[in-house]
Amino acid sequence: MASEGENRTTLTPDTPVQYLKGVGPRLAARFEKLGIRTLADLLEHYPRRYLDFTHPYPVAEAPAGVECVVQAELLAKQGGRYAAGGRRVDKATAGDGVATLELTWFNNPYTIQKLEVGQDYYFEGEVSGGLLRRRMTNPQVRTAAQVSDAPLAAIYPQTEGLSSGAIARCVAQLLPHAELLGDPLSPALLEKYRLPGKAQAVRDIHRPPAPGAVQEARRRLIFEELLVLQLGMGLLKSRGSAATGAPMRRADPAPFWAAVPFAPTGAQRRAVDEILSDMAGETSMNRLLQGDVGSGKTLVAAAALWAAIGAGYQGALLAPTELLARQHAESLNRLLAPFGIRVALLTGGVKAAARRTTLAAIRGGEADLVVGTHAILSEGVEFARLGLAVIDEQHRFGVRQRGALADKGANPHLLVMSATPIPRTLGLLIYGDLDISILDELPPGRQPVKTRVMTGERRRDLYGFLDRQIGQGRQVYIVCPAIEESPDGGLAPVKTYYEETAKALLPDRRVGLMHGKLKPKEKAAVMEDFRAGRLDALVSTTVIEVGVDVPNATVMVIENAERYGLSALHQLRGRVGRGAAESWCFLVSDNRAETVQRRLRFLCSTNDGFAVAQYDLETRGPGDFFGSRQHGLPALQIADLAGDTRTLHAAQREAAALLAADPLLSDPGHALLAAEVERMFRRAGPMN
Ligand code: ADP
Ligand code: MG
């Protein structure tokens, strides 16, 4: 903490972590990587697990190759030296009468300086070597006094340049001030569920006085987190059930279907009918359109927009990336211009002058349909009469964006679209406030994408195949890890791969490069080149993951496929197989771990997105599902939606009771709870 004399009254949950002693801009940036900006974020960065110092191993019995705690007496210090290359090496020997433990520290003379020969210590690290002469490198050391003070040592999720130990030291500075968080739970709730107070729980989870204390602390923190989540969802839900600001008669979709270039699938017809009925109701529509990649959600959205605009309103469509926004603007323009509908594009990449004109057209009502990125949500954007808001690839947006878009009109109808199938139990929880239409039918003539797993050794053969496909007039995608995703240097980042692999192995072909660091205009230009057939192959990071639609592309190659979840791989695969031609997806991975191979082989066995999501959920658990924010739900710090069901039900009950008494959480007694809801949903902001 800052020096004693300093005024502490300014300390709030929102105080930046830089306030802590020893945390400067560089360390703050690393904290930021872990999503930690403020003191509250740090206090809520809970340990991943604990090292239990209360049951140390004797030297001979310590398991090899896993982190563990060994208790032994320090027998001798060998003194330090500098090895070739300037590395400082310090050695010592410890033992317990049965076996000895050789200790080595690199570049850390300080630890050993503090140790006394003849004293008992706890050494924590990985043990190697023979049974009677064992070794430990860079162990952490604790005295008996330290262990009785804190018997469990917290291990934190860490990041490069910010170790668990460094995080622990920062947390330790802060723990005496845990009260700054306040307690969002009322004394009545604490009593009813026999929960510890907030500060107590936070202290205990970081520095448990005994193993049992962790359970109690967790129970309390999980309850609070789930309560806050349910309150947030409840607040959203209540705004949806109000009378609609865009009443309309039920439209007959026949003229629309007659004018579009293909006959709708049965599923598309059904979804459109459901939407049109919803929009003719007295309350505003809140509907989720769920359909696997390639099932034709855009056409359904177009029909809904056509109906709303035909009834005299404006429509808006929000897409997660600039690329998708442009693509949607084009295809919707193609579908809707014949009806005299005027489409405007609004993204961060639109120039100031054009933007002013567009804003005026939106405000004046000359623009019927506005397609864009979250630029649409910014303050200067005012609609004359927004009647229907559509959100594409909804899992990329936070729940709050949904609300923000709806706030642009007088309670307009809302349609959200998602390609990520959600197992039913979780779906009810996440989308409890939405009605659901499902597109369970692909447009006719599609062939399933053939999926294969292979190793990098066969890359040349693979490129030969790509070359032949291109020779037949087809196009191919090659996805590889992003630039910033390869700190280990073990993976060729996208640029190197582009130069040294893709261009080298396709010397006579036109190969493009796309990644997240390009400016929006550059991205659009590359994409346009690919779409127009001026590029044969596109090397890209996962920025092309969602929505991109180029029916002539027939091959998707995914390098380092082991790095992605199955749902993400399925999304990528969905970029091909969009036309009538035979299509392939190659999952390239040199990772031979059985679990990895089994996962990838599973993807080869099915093209059903629902089965893929279910498999992901079962093998990787809901933590991953939510951790990767697949559904736009706020990331949870501690609760596990599938595992903590009893607590979830209790939280649901209490949230309903709280909202029944205070629908907007405006009661001063609920101020802390309201602030927590705000904080949780703010964290769930848009990705990228
Ligand atoms: P997604 O559901 O993944 O967003 P899109 O809306 O991008 O799917 O549609 C995928 C492709 O299928 C597009 O090329 C689109 O033009 C085409 N498509 C959509 N509906 C039909 C249909 N009823 N018949 C034939 N092609 C269709
Ligand atoms: Mg789409």
UniProtKB/TrEMBL annotation:
PANTHER family associated with the record: ATP-DEPENDENT DNA HELICASE HOMOLOG RECG, CHLOROPLASTIC
Catalytic class of the enzyme: isomerase
Family: Belongs to the helicase family. RecG subfamily.
Family annotation (PROSITE patterns): HELICASE_ATP_BIND_1, HELICASE_CTER
The UniProt record lists the keyword rRNA-binding: no
Membrane-traversing stretches: none
Catalysed reaction equations from the record: Couples ATP hydrolysis with the unwinding of duplex DNA by translocating in the 3'-5' direction; ATP + H2O = ADP + phosphate + H(+)
Residue intervals of the Helicase ATP-binding domain: 278-439
Function: Plays a critical role in recombination and DNA repair. Helps process Holliday junction intermediates to mature products by catalyzing branch migration. Has replication fork regression activity, unwinds stalled or blocked replication forks to make a HJ that can be resolved. Has a DNA unwinding activity characteristic of a DNA helicase with 3'-5' polarity.
Annotated protein name in UniProt: ATP-dependent DNA helicase RecG
Native organism: Candidatus Faecalibacterium faecipullorum
Entry keywords, A to Z: ATP-binding, DNA damage, DNA recombination, DNA repair, DNA-binding, Helicase, Hydrolase, Isomerase, Nucleotide-binding
Stretches assigned to the Helicase C-terminal domain: 458-618
A GO molecular-function annotation: hydrolase activity
Superkingdom to which the source organism belongs: Bacteria
